[in-house]
Structures are given as structure tokens and as C-alpha cells.
Amino acid sequence: MQARPLAQSALLLTALAAPALPAGAAAPGGLAMPDMPLHDPFVVADKASGTYYLYTSNVPSVSGECGTGIMAYQSRDLKTWTTPKVVFRLPENSWANGGAWAPEVHAWRGKYYLFTTLHNEAARIAAPSASGWPAYRRGTVMAVADRPEGPFTVANGGEPVAPAGLMTLDGTLYVDRAGKPSYVYAHEWIQAGDGTIEALPLTQDLKPAGPPKLLFKASSAPWSNGQRPVAPDGTPAKANVYVTDGPQLYPSKDGSLLMLWSSYDRNGYVQSVARSASGELAGPWEQLEPIVRRDSGHGMLFDTFDGKRMLVVHRPFKNARGKLYEVRDAGGRIEVLNQRVDLDGDHAMAPSPPPKRDHCKPAQ
């Protein structure tokens, strides 16, 4: 994908973890990807322990642990996975009461930082809402741990990285060629109308170091499809809105900077790519065609232990499972080589297993 390892951009974690599974041990639990409910998948390939970590929102019926949080599956081979364990829990007395979406884990200065999006629909934001729907508190928080398997505890008092008056989600960490970190996130369409991808400079301690800067709007993609959704109370949006989800940044071998992000075309959710030919986060950004459609998206890239580059996405949007594609850096673009159905099955071609009853809720 690029000339230097992803680890140098804090995107692929390879060197700091303590062993998780004993060397040579089989993964207990024996789960395969079709058995594993997940949304917004994020994989850490930890060479030190020979373990892949797959993070997603906690599903109590799968992890066996109640509450809002993040769980992580583990695997040696991307085919057989452990029963997941909860690695982060929503703190008591938090401003949030739900979410734990889009978890990511990045290595930075000897620690592991988890980013996840929380929200509270009752905590309204006074700023105007372009959609006409009430805006409420939603933002990505950071948590920190010594190991990729946690446990992670919130940093910055549990407050979002972006300003609390902005309704944001899907925050990620990007480190440029000069070693300067930035926080990149989606500004939610509920508040913005035309969703955006924005960047906030950070200090070496991952504290905000300046105001957010606009990178691009969702509508800048020629393929993007505006929608006029209706709220649960029957209130339609004021006008067509455009979605931005899941930014992830990767330097390409030709010197450009690529960004995975997701939105909707006429046929549904897609995994797309934007390109900054300058190689700089400031852009300007050019929108490329989606690389995976089929109601798929919110993907990220990682390198396998045998040197293959993989894209993981979720599909379909509801009752999602992880899908793996082998890809390559084609110089300023990502080329999909094939879907690894030997690892992920083909959930789009087969019925989903029936959901297990959530033991945290009383039977109806």
C-alpha cells in the first residue's frame, strides 16, 4: 500500500503487545466470521503475539457480558476466532448513555489508544441543525491501555476529542510524514446536512492543538446520493442529506495520501476512496469511485502476517458480518484483487444465523 510500513503511521500495530494467546495454541471458541455479529470492524495485526484483534461494539449475547462497550475477537489465522471479551465499558457518570460505535485501536508512544463514538439523545445541542432534526451530543472519545486487549480506561475525562458542540463520529488517528498527529472525523449529517470529513491538529500528547479544518463534503463525490430521511416521529429532513462515515488514512506508494470513507450511492452503502495527490492531509481531495458496493462499507486496511494487504468491511448494513478482501496499492488507488470467501464465507449469499436472545434483557 505504501513504501513504509503502516506501523509508522500508527495504523498497523506490530511491536508493543504482550502475548495474548499462548504460542501455538488454538483459538478457543472456534467462531468463524459468519458466526460473528459486528459493525464498523477494526483489525489490529500484532506481530509480537502473532494475534489478530478484531474490535466491534459489544454484543452481550455473544460476549456474555452486559452493558455498552467494546469487545474484541482474537485469531491466529483470520479464520478461527475466540469468543470475544469486553475490552472497554461505558464509564459510570458519563455524559453518554449509548453508542460505543466504530472502535479503533492505535499504538502511540508506548501505549494503545482506543477511539469510539458515544452519544446521548437527551443531551440536545443548541447549535442550528441543517437537517431540521434536533442535534444532540455525539462524539468520539479516547481510552488508553498498555496492551491491545485492554482493559481501556477513558482519557480526557471521557470528553470527546472534537468540540462538544459538534455532532461528530468515527474519529481516527493519522500521523503524517513529519510525525505530527491529527484527529480526523466525520461531522454528522444530522447537524451538518451535507456531512463532512474534518481534521483537528493534535499535540504529541493527543490533545487538541487548533481548530478543525474542513477536508471535504460528502456531496463532493459524483456518485454520492442525497436522501431525505424521515425521523421516527415522522419529521422529514429539510432537504436531501449526505452521509460521511468511517475515515481511514493510508499513504500510497506514489506519494499520495488515500482515505477510505463510506456513504451511499443510488443502490446503497458503499466503500469508497478519496485521494490527496499532494500527500498532505490538507489536500486538495479528489473523489474516486467506490471499490466495494453490495451494501458494504466502513472499512480499514491491515497487513497479514504473511505479507498480504487486506481490506475488512461490514456487510450488510443491518445484522452485519465482516468481509475480507485482498487488495494492493496500485499507486494512488486501492485495487481489490479478490474476496477471501475462504475466510469470511459469503454472508450476502446465505441466510444469517438467527440472533441469540440477549440475556441482559428480560424475555418478551
Automatic annotation (TrEMBL):
Residues covered by region (Disordered): 344-364
InterPro entries: Glyco_hydro_43, Glyco_hydro_beta-prop_sf, Glycosyl_Hydrlase_43
Top-level taxon: Bacteria
GO molecular function, one term: hydrolase activity, hydrolyzing O-glycosyl compounds
Keyword Signal found: yes
Annotated signal peptide: 1-25
Keyword set, alphabetical order: Glycosidase, Hydrolase, Signal
SUPFAM superfamilies per record: Arabinanase/levansucrase/invertase
Biological process, per Gene Ontology: carbohydrate metabolic process
Compositional bias segments (type: Basic and acidic residues): 355-364
Family, as annotated: Belongs to the glycosyl hydrolase 43 family.
Protein name: Beta-xylosidase
Protein's organism: Pseudoduganella umbonata
Lineage of source species: Bacteria, Pseudomonadati, Pseudomonadota, Betaproteobacteria, Burkholderiales
